[in-house]
Amino acid sequence: MQEQTEVDTPKFLRDKYAIVGVGETEYSRNSGRTTRHMAVEAIRNAMQDAGLGPGDVDGMMSYSVMDSTQSPTVSADLGIRLNFYTDIIGGGSSIECLVGLAIGAIEAGMCKTMVLFRSMNGATSMRMGGSGRGAPRLAGDALFSVAYGQTSPAQMFSQSFMRHLYEYGTTPEQVAHVKVFHSWGASNNPKAYYNKRVTVEDVMQSRVIAKPLHLLDCCVETDNATCIIVTSADRARDCRQRPAKILSVVGRCSKPRADDHHQYGPITQVAGHYAKDLLWPNAGVGPEDVDITGSYDAFSFTTLLQLEDYGFCKKGEGGEYVSDGTIALGGRRPNNTAGGHLNEGYTHGMNMVIENVRQLRGEADDYCPVGPDGKRQHTYDYAEAGCRQIRDAEITANLGWAMPNTGSALVMRQG
Catalytic residue among 17, 63, 296, 382, which? Predict the structure, then answer.
């Protein structure tokens, strides 16, 4: 099959839209609340962040896997009348995809300002591969997975991870650094569920879940809701916060086989291999221009594979890239500066976008003191728990993951 190498990208959309508001609830393991209740709180927080009232929002989209509450119910609770809404089924590649769909809906004149939210009781209700699902059915896509004992994401993806160890000599100890460096960001994040710094030894001594994944290679399951608000750059000028302008977005790009990634090799190659040919030309920048990455870390290995295939390092060199300090706070290109899914909370990708928006504003909510002007006085000292704001961050990239064969991405710049 011939690979697509040149694409006609919509460069006229570059800088035309922006994220103007972000909000979330507490990341917990027992919310004691419905997804409806949490969604309302997260959206209200994002609207307050943007300085918007119910009359300023007329579009809403959400995504879910087995749970969440639909947009018409949530919008009614907030007093918002919608000109456009839709709710999609999807997991980790959804948020960047929805950003692109929001741009399309606004560009088509169907609405002017779009709320995107995700609300999930991912620890106490619908757990991925766990309780709340009932017995897996041997039908549809499950014929590629459940029939072979692959009932959880860790089991489904572990073959790709093992192959990477075999093919390139990557070691589990190298990959454990993803958890270690993400925990540095989490230690400077008051919201993070796991906020203690860990060591490679801690990761390697935790129990094996699905070889080569140890417990600390896996994300934390949490109850939470998250929200971002997208509107045009023109309307963003009237909002409260400095906008994060959108340079490029890729939504649910797939490998030639989108149903079962084991059927099309190499299995160590993920959808970012194809998505990068859309992402970077449209953005007008390349991996070398990015200051901060937000690479989906359902597992430590997903971060490594994506950073390789989006071009931040050569294929096979991901082990060195994630372990040599590049992705750490204070490194050349920090990744998941709030702790990501491995530490802060699991949101199917939304919290990494929220963090990069705050980084571009220069307003990471860390432990640095607040000055008389109400803004944090960042020290840029990452040695101890305190600061996680990256100095002079201008361009960020979010790399969304659903599975090895499907992914999404988003590039933003300081407004």
Answer: 296
Q: What is the DSSP string of 144-187?
A: GTGGGT--SHHHHHHHHHHHHHHHH---HHHHHHHHHHHHHHHH
Q: Is 296 part of the annotated catalytic residue set?
A: yes
- What burial class does residue 391 get, using C-beta atoms within 10 Å of its C-beta: 0-12 exposed, 13-18 middle, 19+ buried? exposed
Give residue-wise pLDDT tens across range 142-154: 666 666 677 788 8
Residue 346 · residue 122 · CB < 8 Å: yes
Output phi, psi for 304, to 5 deg. -60, -50
Q: Of 17, 27, 193, 346, which one is the catalytic site residue?
A: 346
Fill in the amino acid letter for 144.
F
pLDDT digits over 57-113, tens only? 999 999 998 789 999 999 999 999 999 999 999 889 999 999 999 999 999 999 999
CB 180 within 8 A of CB 329: no
**Domains, the chain, ranges and CATH?**
12-126+222-236 (3.40.47.10), 244-414 (3.40.47.10)
The pTM (predicted TM-score) of the whole model is: 0.93
Q: Please report which residue ranges of 216-349 form alpha helices under DSSP H.
A: 233-236, 272-283, 300-309, 318-323, 340-343
168 is catalytic: no
